[in-house]
Design a protein that fits this description.
Length: about 450
């Protein structure tokens, strides 16, 4: 279909199409015009009877439909959009599925811009979130004190549902302004306190945008890495003692440096403290939180909902390494628990990682440290990794007989292994005690102990 030309034309948020001269010319000369029932009605008086004007099909069959029309001889297509096709619009789908030289975009004033002007808001100071076809739980990730949010909605994110999410998150003083049918003669704008909206039975027009003024929350979520431990839901005090504590979590985040496009395993995720922060601060990373114990896994799911991480944080119930065969290959791994399978895990994951891949593991027990030190020594011997280890010991203030004392928590050892090469290069960290026979291709380097 290289010869087909597709123009995505924004018609504006109004009853009469707002088209530039070039957009109008493109519309009038197109053989095929696709759009929603409302969009086609806006432009129908401009079109000729020779032009084909079917309803826009669902995206999962759109490419097939376009190919069918192409086989029938169609070479020029217009797809109608409401405002700016490339801002939360259909244009992004076309950019992903067609070559740039096949596409032309014609933007118009969007409904979001219209709402900003109705309410006197500056768009750069508004956080825009589309919940159209997305889980309403995503709202939690965007909530913060004194923030203005503009929400694009569907039937699963009505104003009443949004109000319920706000109240559940502790934003009791928030307000929602519902802007219905913006740009039409019967547009309606009304502002509601969230608690009043919960009891409002009104069915709002499907064509609406909700603007949220959050105010402050009585149970705010953290706004900086290193969440205090009490923010995480755990299964009693024993599990609270077992989560990766804030000080260690910060070090893990710093070592892994989550980035867009990463696929990260959190093995032995427990209640999810590390997974939550990895994905909370990098939404574009795919994080797989793997936990076998039912009680901890249930807490993991609750924390996932609490922090609004419902897209790229994947909770996986099962045991590693067995469950890993069902998951996409990672480029970064954190091992916080292994149920006695640490040597097997390390061996399998290291073979699986590409050059540049990383394993970070934590250890409290001496047996766990022993396995990690063995793995470290093997990496140094083979010269296929950049290794680092550190121990974190934290003391927290407490009182004894009314006097301040510091109580030391168990020290946690962290190990980081970044794969550098598959070439066998022996690097010695300690002097040899036995002789080694080497071939001309083997390099031996002696270094000081780390």
């Amino acid at each position: 279909m290289q010869e087909i030309k597709i123009s995505i034309v924004g018609i504006g948020a109004c009853e009469a199409a707002q088209l530039s001269d070039s957009a109008m010319s493109t519309l009038l000369s197109a053989e095929l015009i696709l759009g929603s029932k409302r969009q086609l009605k806006v432009v129908e008086h401009l079109l000729s009877t020779a032009q084909i004007t079917p309803l826009l099909p669902k995206l999962d069959v759109l490419a097939t439909v376009l190919e069918q029309y192409y086989n029938q001889g169609v070479r020029s297509v217009v797809v109608l959009a409401s405002g700016d096709p490339l801002y939360y619009g259909i244009g992004s789908w076309f950019s992903r599925n067609f070559a740039a030289e096949q596409l032309t975009f014609y933007p118009a004033v969007s409904s979001m811009q219209e709402v900003c002007h109705r309410l006197g808001l500056t768009l750069q100071n508004v956080t825009v979130l589309s919940l159209h076809g997305r889980p309403v739980g995503l709202l939690r990730r965007k909530l913060a004190a004194n923030r203005t949010l503009m929400i694009l909605t569907d039937s699963q994110s009505t104003p009443q549902i949004l109000a319920n999410e706000l109240v559940d998150a502790g934003y009791y003083a928030a307000h929602i302004t519902v802007c219905e049918t913006i740009g039409y003669r019967y547009e309606e704008i009304e502002r509601y306190p969230v608690k009043a909206l919960l009891r409002n039975p009104k069915q709002f027009d499907a064509l609406h945008i909700s603007v949220i003024e959050t105010g402050t929350s009585v149970k705010p979520l953290p706004s900086f890495p290193g969440f205090a431990n009490h923010h995480f839901i755990t299964d009693g005090e024993q599990d609270r003692q077992m989560i990766t504590k804030a000080e260690v979590r910060l070090a893990v985040l710093s070592l892994l440096q989550p980035s867009a496009g990463d696929v990260i395993y959190d093995i032995g995720a427990g209640c999810g403290s590390v997974s939550i922060e990895l994905n909370y601060w990098c939404e574009q990373a795919q994080v797989f939180a793997i936990e076998k114990h039912p009680e901890r896994f249930a807490c993991l799911l609750k924390n996932q909902k609490k922090f609004g991480l419902v897209s790229n944080l994947h909770a996986v119930q099962g045991s590693a390494p067995g469950i890993l065969a069902k998951l996409p290959k990672p480029n970064k791994v954190f091992i916080g628990g292994s149920d006695g399978m640490l040597p097997q895990l390390l061996e399998r994951l290291w073979l699986q990682l590409e050059v540049g891949g990383q394993i970070v593991a934590s250890a409290v027990l001496e047996n766990t440290k022993h396995h990690l030190v063995q793995f470290l020594n093997e990496r140094n011997l083979r010269g296929d990794a950049k290794v680092m280890t550190q121990q974190i010991a934290v003391s927290h203030g407490d009182y004894l007989a009314g006097q301040l004392v510091y109580r030391q928590a168990l020290p946690v050892s962290l190990f980081s292994f970044v794969k550098t090469t598959a070439t066998v290069v022996i690097q010695l960290k300690t002097p040899l005690t036995t002789s080694l026979k080497t071939s001309p291709k083997t390099t031996i380097k002696t270094q000081e102990p780390i």
